[in-house]
Every structure is written in structure tokens, then in C-alpha cells.
Amino acid sequence: MDRKDSSDLASPVVPMSAAGSAEGFSSILFGPKDLLQSPPPLQPDCFHDLNLDQIVKQAISGFTEYALEAFFHQPLRDLDALAWRHEVFRDLEAAPVYQALLSFAERMRKVRETLTRTGKFYYVRQKQAGLVAAAEDYVAVVSALSADLASAKPTSRGLTAFGAWLSDHVAGSRFTTLCAEATAVRGAMASLRYSLLIGAGTVRVSRYNESGDYSDIVTRTFEKFRQRAGKGRDWKFPEMAEMNHVESGILDRVALLFPEPFARLSSFAETWSAFIDPVILRFDREIQFYLAWSAYLAPLRQAGLPVCTPKLSRTDKTESVEATFDIALAHKMVAAGTAIVTNDFHLDGPERVIVITGPNQGGKTTFARMVGQLHYLAALGCPVPGASARLFLFDRLFTHFEREETVATQRGKLEDEVFRIHEILQAATSDSVVIINEIFASTSLTDAVELATKVMTQIIERDLICVCVTFLDEISRLGPTVVSCASTVVPENPVERTFKIIRKPADGNAFAIFLARRHGLTAEQIAERIVS
Amino acid sequence: MKAFLMFPDRDFDPDQWLIVIANPYPRRDGQPPGPWENLPPLSEALFRDLQLEPILQAMARDDLFLYEVSRRGLLSGSRLDRDTSLYRQAILRDALTNPGVVRDIYALSIEANEAVRKAGGGLGFSQPSSILSRSVEAMKSYMESLRRLRDIATLAGPDFRSPGFSRLFAMLGEELDDSYFAEVAAHLKRLEFRHGVPISAEMGQTCKARDYVLRMPSEENAGWLNWLFGPHEESYTLTLAPRDDAGATALGELRDRGLAQVADALGQSVDHIHSFFDMLRTELAFYVACLNLKDRLGELGMPTCLPDPRPKGGRATTCRELYDLALALGMGRKIVGNTVDAGTSDLIVVTGANRGGKTTFLRSLGQAQLMMQAGMFVPAATYSADVAQGIFTHFKREEDASMSSGKLDEELARMSGIIDHLAPDALVLFNEAFAATNEREGSEIALQVTRALQARRVKQVTVSHLYAFTGTLHAQSEHSFFLRADPAENGAASFRLHEGEPLTTSFGADVYRRYFVDAA
């Protein structure tokens, strides 16, 4: 995740004209400076721990052909590029813009499919006809997008610039000629109708003679035997796009019957072997990032969960987020119709570290993961879960989660943990974010307290933003930069969790007391039950 | 074309579930009857409590298909309306008068499908052209069977009076006249496509043809000859190389596309005629099974009658020589029946001696009611009762004789299960209900249930030895009728019930004494 680009130091303000001029348009996703990293970055290490792998996988599941993973693997540090994305996302919240882009994507997909199929055809006439069909569709989808964008009036720098470019492109002579020729050829071909008489090893091709549909006639004769509304047998004919030699032989004879339309077909194919514009091609892929993420957020928004554009800073390390949630979990719960608990958190003044203690299954890990997700998604320029979010823009995001012991590591579990946390502290800068889940749970309590205190002290000294889930209460009392939070239970029913994580001092034995009461074993209960 | 012999306006077995049993492998012997889906709720209890098994066996005569049709025909009777019961009764009367013709048509309905099946009729998964040629053959066979069926109908028609048979026979005559058979024959000949398969097509995207439509095949001497010698038409012919197997396959597929719809239509028609014969067979099976039962009772010299179902809602219960059919069939000899006139009572209470014929009476009444509603004759010299909105039984289970809260719990759960399905004018038969606890508790529960059901206009026949219950009923005996079984005199019970109030003395003491005192 080595990302050192000059934009770090550059002014975030870019003149509109840089991206919006008629002479060119480069990227809807990476802004006027085109920050696209090449070769594409690998999946960051934190992905698995934060469930970002699940999130991204689900978000792009309907978008396989666009290879969007790489876009999710490249968080940005350029505030202007992030603002550029925020603007596009906001445009997509307006139905007309969203629908226009959705329909564009859908139809472009069909164009590409047709072209791919056509490319594989063996018979020349089929190749030619496929090209015409694809060209006709392409002309229609591009014109539609141009018109739709013009009427939807997007306000983002990205879509405004693209719209302007597209409008010029569609009016251009190359595009209008393509349109006219494709329509003419298709019209001439579509009306052709002919008759076949299939004998043994022969088929006779002639012009079409009107006569009744014999299947209907037979059906009517036997109608009286119908016992119930039956549905027809679903014959499975192999629907090959490719012709076989019998079909092509028939086609050649149809061409003899109708020479003129076939001549026009072959002349079109010679002229227009490649017709898709490269700018449109790139736009088609990159806009999917926005569509995918918007679609991913849609069910959450529908369920009434808040989503917001985060306010980002590269200098201010105080943070404040309201009503946020684990986005992967929320997806599952919305699907299952379960209510979702939202959480707030904030880091004020010198506060940098959130230490979470409290009963198990109370949402501690989920909370830590959620904070990590928030930071990462914010760095992608995506809208994030929450009613409002003010976040620090990290340079690197590290996670340290308990891991299954792997055969590959020769080190013991404790040693492995120490090794990994060391690696993290080596690589981290003061602008990094660290998410820790259950540190040193595998060793004795005294060892754990001692080691964890040492690690956390380093983190505090280096001014890292950190979330740490632990059962070690001591960690939560390491000074004014540490905020102690805890998972909570319903007071009347201690076994029921609220999944709320709130600021409160760590209190290790609270849950044990609740459990004891449930079994009638608190000091008072025992006193009552033993009747003297 | 529909048989409509079980209902005036619909098929007996719309899911053709019964056909599944008949073809190709019937349910194996020895399996418990079932399933119970698509039968009135709690049919299994009814089947068990009324001892329907020997009755069904007499109807089936070892034919599992007849067994299953009888089972469903009989059990579904509990929910039939009076018109349908009478509709069936009229058909049954015809069948009883013309048993030979009915059995002939039944045999034909089986043979028609057998003939096609033996010729490889099962269409399975196949290509249109092979489906088509097999369908053409099957259709030829069916046309023969249909012609025979129509001939029987024409000949025997005047002897049948019921609306059901009259409608069926008239329909066969009208739909299947000679000109129709000729029309079908002409199609079947054309569908052999002696002169090639004529198809039209349209140019689709990427030059693939689409919308293959079969056109009228030319008559004899037309087609190729017409093309060769007829008026000139511009055409080009593709001829496959002699060993072009791929080409032959492709051409075959093209032909199949053209034939798909007509093959489908003809295949479906074959299926439909198959269904028609199956349905005819299924619906006739019920009456054939009734004939079987009638024959057996004739051998035993037991009387039967076509009962008189009274309209739902009015109360009536009258019978002469009503006997337990299961018992008669099981013993294989003549047995005595009961003659009762309960008038317009909505509650019949049966008390009295153990082994005095109480349960037998209760069962015989349930059987007769069910058979009447199913459209059958009943085991009695006469029987008349109002049609019930569902027939339910709550019988003491042999295995829950012991007193325990678990047993009472089970009984109450069963009662609650019945209540789930009760509506006014239902009939509930109780046999020693709520006896799984002490008399006081049992009586209190029984009384509450009985009064509540009376208030909801549910007709009840209850056999009980809980005097606290029956005595209270007798003390406030509106719309109630009391029957009593007497203890055996000189060691032989009469098994005849007579009208009489509940008696406090438990007849169980007699039985006790017989073993503990007499034996001493």
C-alpha cells in the first residue's frame, strides 16, 4: 500500500475547465488529475478483518465484468479527488441521473455482448449482421445517455464535464453517419420472410406464401379433449447464436432470393469494424463504481438507516460520528428483517484511543470493525453509514485481529501476535489508524496486561487513532487520550444485549453478577432462599 | 370432455393423485392407508374410529386402485353438500340396475390407456418429430377406443336415468360423431408428412431465422410434384452430402422447430385423452366398488338401502335395522341392527352396560352418515338424517385407558383439534370422552364441551359411562334423546339399544362380579 503521489501536497482546488473542456474528458472516477494507479493495487491487508472483503464482494457482485475490485483497493489521500467523487455520488441520489446511468450501463452491456458474440461468428453474413445490430444499439444508448444527462442536469464537476463532452460527440459527423447507415441496413434485412420445405436430406428455399398456421388448426381439432389448463411443453432447442452449415446454406439461398439487402449489409461491415469511442468505454466502466456502491446502499436507505457524506480532514484528529453501524451486518439484518442498533462515537481534544470492554456478544468486535470500515470507505470517497461523520483521513489503516493458528507459522500464538503488532508499529506513521481486536488473549492475565500496556503506550505516544477491544480493564485507564467504552445489557434482563457501545468505565464483574442473579445466586437471593 | 360422475360440475380428483397410485406401480400391500392430505381434516381419526378398513376392503376386492378411490370417495363424503350426495345416489341407482354396462365401461377405460401404454405411449423426453409420430399412433388407438365407448353409450343410453350418466352419454354422442372421426383421420394422415415438412421463417438478428411456423402440408400428389410440374416459383434447393451427419442433425433440428408446436398440441391432446380415460376410470371406480360391496352384503343377506338425506340444518335421525357394517363384514354373517327414532334431537346420549352394543351403535351411525353423504347406500333397512357439515369422532383410544394427566392432556388436545374444524351443523361422535381422569373432573369437562357445542348448533352423539355427566344432561334434556344398552341376561347381551334414561348403577360392577365373585 505504498501510495506516494504528488497530489498530497497540491492544492485541492482545480479549475472546472481542466476536466470539462470539449477537447477531452478522461476519468469520472479519478478526477481531472487522473490518479488511477497502474498496475492496479492488491487487496489491502485490513480487508478480511474489517469484513471489507465481504462488503466489496457483495457490492460488486452484479458488476463482475467491470473488474471493480481494483477501484476498491485504492483509497485516496487527495481531498479534491474525494470531493469530486462525493459530488458524483450526490448526483446519483437524484432519480433521473441514477436511472439514466443505470439504463446506459445495462444497454452498453448488451452492446458488448453482441460484439463479443459477433466476433466469434464463423459465417461472414452473421458477423456482418451482428455488427449492425450492435452499432444500432450503441447509437441508441449513447444518444439516450446524452439526452438523459442534458435533461437531468447533474451538478457534479464530473458528470457536468462528461455531459458536455458527450453532447459534442453525439452531434459530431462520425456518430451521426454511423447512426444513419446502421438503421438503413437493419430496415432492409428485418422484413425478409421465406418458406422452407424440408424433405429427407434436402431443403427447398422459396419466397413466403401466405397460408394458415397448421399447428393452430390441429390444436383446434383436439380442443375438446382438454381436461385442464395445461401448459405447453418447453422444448429445449439449443439456442446457438452461431449458425450451422445447414442454416448458412439456407441463408445463402435466401440471399439469392433477395440480393440487394445483403449487398448493403456487407458494405456497412467494411466501413464500421470498430465504432465504440474510448472515452465512452472508460466512462462505462468507471461509473459502475458509483452505481455499485449506490445499489449496495439502497436497501439500507430503504430500511431507514442513515447514510452520509463524511467530512474529511488530513490534519484534525478529532472525530465525531452519529448513528453509524456495521454495513455488512446491517445488510444481513435488513435482509432478515431484524432491527439494527446504531452507535455514536467521538474523539474530542486529545482523545485518540477507544478501548472497549464489557459482556461478550455485546457488539464490541462489530463496533471496532465498524470504525475501521468507516475510515476506509471514507477514503474511497463513498457515502458511509451514519447520520453524520467527521473523520480523519488516514495514510494507512492497520488491523490486528485474533487469528487461527496457521501451520505455516512456526511461531507460537503469542509470539505470532507480538510479531504482527511489531510489524504494524514499524509501518505506522502518526497519520495511521489501528484497529485491534482482543490483544494477547492467549497468554496469562498478568502477561497480557503487561504486554498490552506496553503496546498501547507506544500507540498513545505516537498519537495514532486506535480502537482496541479487550477484556483487560487496565488498558482503558492509560490516560486522557484513552476513551473507555463498554457494551451494555438491558438493565431489567441482564442476558439481553443492547448492542449499544457507550462511554463508561470498564467494570469487569458486572456481567457475572447479572448471571448469578438469573440463577438466583446473588448474596441477597441466597439469603432469602435459605429460610432460617 | 369430462366424465363428471362424482360431482355435477367438476373432476373428482383434479390433481390426478389417484392415477399416480394406479400407474405404473400400485401402492404395495400392507402399507398403512394414506396419505391424508386433500381429505377433510381429521379423516384419519374418522377412518380409525368408524373402522372403515373392512368396508374399504370389501369395496376394493384386493384392487388397490379401487381401495384408494373408495377411501377418498368415502372420506370426502363428510364434507359434501346434499345435492352432490343425491347426484351420486342417482348414478349409483343406475349402476345397481345396470351393473354389467358399468363394469364394461370401467374395463374399457382401463384398456384404452393400456393399449397406448403397451405401444410405447409414455412420451417422456424426446424430440418433437418422435413425439409427433408416437402421438399420431396413440391417437389412432384412442380413436378406436373412443368409438367403442360411444357405441356402448348409444346402445345402453336409454336404460340410464341419472343426470350424471345421461349427461356423459349425450356428450359422447354429440362430440364424437362420425364426421369428427373423419376429420381426425385426415389430420393424422397429413401429420405423416409424406411430401416434406413445410415451414415459414423470418430473418432475425444476426441473420438467424426465427418464428418457424408449420404450414398446411400439401395433399397427396401435390408438394414436390406440384413444384416440379406446377406453375414456376423461384426456389433454390440445398441438398446434403450423403454422409453429412452433422448436416442431417441440423436439418432434423430445423424440422423439429417447425414441428414443435403441433407435436406439443397433439402430445397434449393424447395426454388429455389419457386423462379423460383415467378420470372416467377413477370416477366409475367408486361405483364399481359400491357394486362389489353390494354383492358381498347380498351374500351375507344383510339389507342395504339408499338413504334419505335431509337438508342441512334441520335435525332428523331415524333408522331401522341400522347395523355396524365393519362388524358384519368381519364376522361374515348376519347381525342384528338398531331401530331408533331420535326425532329432531340434536344430542343423542347413549348409556348403559358394557359390551351392550353402545360403541357398535355409535359406529354404525357414523358409517351410515358418512356413506349417505358420500352418495352410497347404507347398512340399514332405512336411514334418514340431516346432512352434516363435517363428521368428527372423538373416541377413547384403547391405549389411553390408564388414568394420567398425560392421557387427559392428549384427549383435550384432540378435542381442541376437533374444535379447530367445527362449524354449526357438524356432527361429532363421542365415545367415552374425557374418561382419562376421575368422574367428577371428566364429567365437568364433558358437560362444558357438550353444552358449548349445543349452543353452537353442533349435532352430537355421545356414548358415556360418566353418570355425573349423562345424569345432568338428562335432568335438563332439551332437544336430547337418550338410549340405553342393557346388561347381558343369562350371559348373552341383546346388543339392541332402547330409549331409556341413564342409570346410576355402574354396569361395570356386573362385569367385576362376573370375574371376581362368580369365579370364586
Explain this structure to me?
- Chain A has helices at about 15-20, 45-50, 50-60, 70, 80-90, 95-120, 125-150, 155-170, 175-190, 215-220, 245-255, 260-270, 280-300, 325-335, 365-380, 415-425, 445-460, 510-520, 525-530; strands at about 195-200, 200-205, 305-310, 310-315, 320-325, 345, 355, 385, 390, 395-400, 435, 465-470, 480-490, 495-505.
- In chain A, helix 7 crosses helix 12 (about 260-270), helix 9 runs antiparallel to helix 12 (about 260-270) and helix 11 (about 245-255) crosses helix 12.
- Helix content of chain A is about 50%, strand content about 15%.
- Chain A has a domain at about 305-530: Rossmann fold (3-Layer(aba) Sandwich).
- Chain A is built from 19 helices and 14 strands.
- Chain A is an alpha/beta fold.
- Chain A is elongated and about 95 Å long.
- In chain A, strand 11 (about 435), helix 17 and strand 12 form a beta-alpha-beta unit.
- Chain B has about 525 residues and is an alpha/beta fold.
- Helices cover about 50% and strands about 15% of the residues of chain B.
- A six-stranded mixed β-sheet of chain B has the order 9-10-11-7-12-13, sandwiched between helices. Chain B has a four-stranded mixed β-sheet with strand order 4-8-5-6. A two-stranded antiparallel sheet of chain B has the order 1-2.
- In chain B, strand 1 and strand 2 (about 210-215) form a beta hairpin.
- Chain B is elongated.
- The chains are: A alpha/beta (about 525), B alpha/beta (about 525).
- Chains A and B meet through helix 7, strand 1, strand 2, helix 10 and helix 11 of A and helix 9, strand 1, strand 2, strand 3 and helix 11 of B.
- Strand 1 (about 195-200) of chain A pairs antiparallel with strand 1 (about 195-205) of chain B, so a sheet runs across the interface.
